[in-house]
Amino acid sequence: MGQVVYHEWVPTGAFVKITILAAASAIVVLLLILAVFLYPLSTEGLLGFGVSISTLMFILVLCLNFKGIRIQLSSEELTVDYGLFNHKHIRMNDIVSCNLVKASFRRFGGVGVRYGLDGSWAYTTSFGNAVEVVPKKGRTFVFSSNNPKKICQIIATKMQEYG
After folding, report:
1. In degrees rounded to 5, what are phi and psi of residue 76?
2. Phi and psi, residue 141, nearest 5°
3. Model-level pTM?
4. Are strands 86-91 and 95-102 parallel, antiparallel or unpaired?
5. pLDDT digit string (tens) for 84-108?
6. What is the CA radius of gyration of the chain?
7. From its phi and psi, is residue 110 left (phi > 0), alpha (psi between -120 and 50) or beta?
8. What is the CATH topology of the domain spanning 4-9+69-162?
9. Beta pairing class for 141-144 and 121-124
10. What are the domain boundaries of the chain?
């Protein structure tokens, strides 16, 4: 990868944080109810307690994994990372166009790593500003950004350099 010309961190949006907090709170309340009202715990109570703890741990791991998107633009490549397992690399000379868009629920059905109804691929942290990159081959790629205009300007400059 060449010299980094742009770097951005896009944290997860408030909608996702509130949803995760609500789910985790519901599980904690369930655990408290199990602990208070099912003493001594029956087999079913222990099973429910185990499932609740496992679900809570899963939610917390997801929260840590998808805490934001890291965007890097170099002279050669656009790199977008979302969590431990979601990495997208597009070479600058493979980009056909770059557009400013809104990441909408209608198009992607939520936030996170998504397939759009139009066949696009998205990494979104909120329903807001995003960048849409159309490669020569493969799916259109959309990702959340706080500065989509600046990213598209840099990509347009690099596209002109490659002719």
Report:
1. -115, -20
2. -120, 130
3. 0.80
4. unpaired
5. 889 999 999 999 999 999 998 889 9
6. 20
7. left
8. PH-domain like (2.30.29)
9. parallel
10. 4-9+69-162, 12-65
